[in-house]
Amino acid sequence: MSDREAVWIARRFQGPERSGNGGYVAGRLGTALAGVIGGGLVPQVTLRMPPPLERDLELVANSDGAQLFDGESLVASAVPVASDFLASAAVDPVLPEEARVAEASYRGLKNHPFPTCFACGPANAGGLHLKPGPLGDGRTACTWKPAADLATGDDGLVDAVYLWAALDCPGGWAIDLEGRPSVLGQLTACIDARPQVGEPCVVLGRYLGEDGRKTFTASTLYDADGRVLARARHTWITVDPALFN
User: pLDDT tens-digit profile of 163-216?
Assistant: First the structure.
């Protein structure tokens, strides 16, 4: 038996100008699948096409996987994979002070291929406002204090879908996005714990390698005490930004 849910990607959650943020959209499928799979498994989401904004979409999920449809078109799909896939995803932490220093060199403030991105775009007033700057060793770092409207209920914990979004772009900025503009193709993530809104967090990304048009990165979200909250691995696809904006 499959659960079915109507999905509407509001413009706030865009990545490029005409499509949804990859991390947020992956989070919609990933959180749906995480709720029905067993231990030792994590969701791996593959984006099949640019997720359309402000349209009626349908999310179908069961323990075998999840799919997001735009009519008959498959927008994204998710399958459970062994959690060992994320064994190399943990990015070594830095102190919040070091992350703030890295933010000052965030390249997206001056030359962002997708300035309206929900996670890291300087032109998205309702976004997460991440500024993942380089640490100089293949890693990026930034701070994040989740806004109050990211909570799910009275407990004040951040909705897991926004943690998927926060794990997205710190990995992307570990790539030279000016010379190698890319969009998210696949995101595998594990949410270990959710922070409270307003809690100071640090997000790190790391470059892992590349193969043709694909680039591989990882990211990790830490709380104020240096505890791992969430981990992810990404596959990015090199594109012409003009085709998406």
Answer: 999 999 999 999 987 778 889 999 999 999 999 999 999 999 999 999 999 999
Cα–Cα distance between 125 and 29 in angstroms, integer? 25
Fold of 3-243: Porin (2.40.160)
Are 146 and 203 contacting, i.e. CB atoms less than 8 angstroms apart? no
Q: pTM, whole model, 2 decimals? A: 0.96
* Integer Cα distance of 237 and 112 in angstroms: 17
